[in-house]
Amino acid sequence: MSIKAKPKKRGRPATGRDPMMGFRAAPVLRASIVKWAENQPDIPTLSEATRRLVELGLTVKSAVRPTAKAAARTAELAAKAIDKHADTSAPSAERESRKNRLLKGPSVFWDVRKGM
């Protein structure tokens, strides 16, 4: 019985085990990555710098949305701060109206806050 040789594979040999990812980057973004890499002690390649920045981005905690309890507490603290600076010579109805306008904020920001 003859010994069968392992046939050679076609193409370039594999350089790594992890799957390759690619993306398009604007020249400004690429320049920012290169600048960041130049400031690192070991001056990584563009690919390595991109990998490190992605890993850094994934380890950063995202902003936590405030809960209803936290929002109520914030409104309470704001109301107290407004009361401290309120015009005592104005009638109480006028003071309340001013306070409510300050707490509610400008109408252009209402839709932004609803998304929070």
Overview in brief:
This protein has 5 helices and no strands. It is mainly alpha-helical.
What does this structure look like?
- By secondary structure, the protein is mainly α.
- Helix content is 53%, strand content 0%.
- It contains 5 helices and no strands.
- Helix 1 crosses helix 2.
- The termini are far apart.
- The mean pLDDT is 84.
Large-scale geometry: elongated
Q: What is the N-to-C succession of helices and strands? A: HHHHH
User: How many strands, what sense, and barrel or not for the largest sheet?
Assistant: none
Class inferred from helices and paired strands: mainly alpha
> Ends: how far apart?
75 Å
Low-confidence runs of at least 5 consecutive residues: none
Number of helices in the DSSP assignment: 5
Strand content: under 5%
Strand segment tally: 0
Q: What is the average of the pLDDT values?
A: 84
Rg from Cα: 30 Å
- Percent range for helical residues? 40-55%
What's the topology here?
Blueprint: H1 27-38, H2 46-59, H3 68-84, H4 92-104, H5 110-114
Top keywords for this entry?
single chain, mainly alpha, 0% strand, 116 residues, 53% helix
